Amino acid sequence: MAIALVATVAASAAIAGLINRPLRQMGVALQHVMEGRWNHRLPEDSATREIRDLNQGFNQMVHRLQQADEERTLMLAGISHDLRTPLSRLRLEVELSVADPEVRRHMAQDIEQAQNTLGQFMAYARPQAPQSVELKPLPFEAWLQEVLEPYRCRPDMTVTCCVPADVQVYAEPVGLERSLVNVLENAIRYGKTPQTDISEISIQGWSEEEWFECVIRDQGPGVPEEALGRLTQPFYRVNTSRTDAHGAGLGLAIVERTIAHMGGQLSVANPPQGGLSVHLRLRRVR
């Protein structure tokens, strides 16, 4: 009986290992796919037919997903390339041929909207795995002042900052600058203070253990509470006065993806004082 018990336990352990090992491999492969890495493949030479068929099906699925992603990126790149040249020619023809200044201004705005929409499509479709983002310590306050310099003389906005001078964050400077500019442009377009028709933007920052929190807030009309959770979804636009402007609905989706690639988080809220606030959480250098 003792020998039979030992043999049963050993056989159970072997069977459990035979089952758990492919499950662990599947879990790792799924994590790679969720992170946008398509080069991970499962072994197709398993001794168990069911595991072998499962791994082959998974590898074929990943291959097709990779092909679809590459075709989508290539298609958007081709559309962007083919449309930018005629849009530029249209812009030049409008400036030279349209006599009415008001009509010329509106036509130029429409062309600029089309160009910005193409840029957003390309930015969102551009593949970028988290491992390809090179993070480095960034003095946040000094970097922020440099990014805000072009905005300080704009007549349609005011910006105030209250950020600690000694904080450094782990970030990719170009991606973080694009994210901040995207949030600022949204606040300028959709967050104008009703009494002044000027976008009054405040930027505040503070440290919380290993995180640094940066909040960009405007004084505009805000958005309905039920829409807050969907603002970062691609192509979603709220049917309120905040969206009485042009856009593809990709701005915050791009920002969320960029911040996530840096190991950070993005959230949106309606503060009690009014307006809309965008919260960026970045890892702090300690």
Entry summary:
By secondary structure, the chain is an alpha+beta fold.
Structural class: alpha+beta
CATH class identity of the largest domain = Alpha Beta
3D shape: extended
The rounded Rg comes to 25 Å
Query: How much of the sequence is in beta strands?
Result: 15-25%
Question: Can you tell me the CATH architecture of the largest domain?
Answer: 2-Layer Sandwich
CATH superfamily of the largest domain: Histidine kinase-like ATPase, C-terminal domain
Low-confidence stretches: 240-245
Task: Describe what you observe in this structure.
With 286 residues, the chain is α+β, with helices and mostly antiparallel strands. It folds into two domains: 2-66, no CATH class; 130-283, Histidine kinase-like ATPase, C-terminal domain (Heat Shock Protein 90, 2-Layer Sandwich). The chain is built from six helices and seven strands, in the order αααβαββαββαββ. It has helices spanning 2-34, 49-97, 101-125, 140-148, 173-190, 251-261; strands at residues 136-139, 157-162, 168-171, 199-208, 211-217, 265-269, 277-283. A five-stranded mixed beta sheet has the order 2-4-5-7-6. A two-stranded antiparallel sheet has the order 1-3. It is extended and about 95 Å long. Residues 240-245 have low confidence and may be disordered.
Which secondary structure elements does this structure contain, and how are they paired or packed?
Elements: H1 2-34, H2 49-97, H3 101-125, E1 136-139, H4 140-148, E2 157-162, E3 168-171, H5 173-190, E4 199-208, E5 211-217, H6 251-261, E6 265-269, E7 277-283
Parallel strand pairs: 2-4
Antiparallel strand pairs: 1-3, 4-5, 5-7, 6-7
Helix pairs in contact: 2-3, 5-6
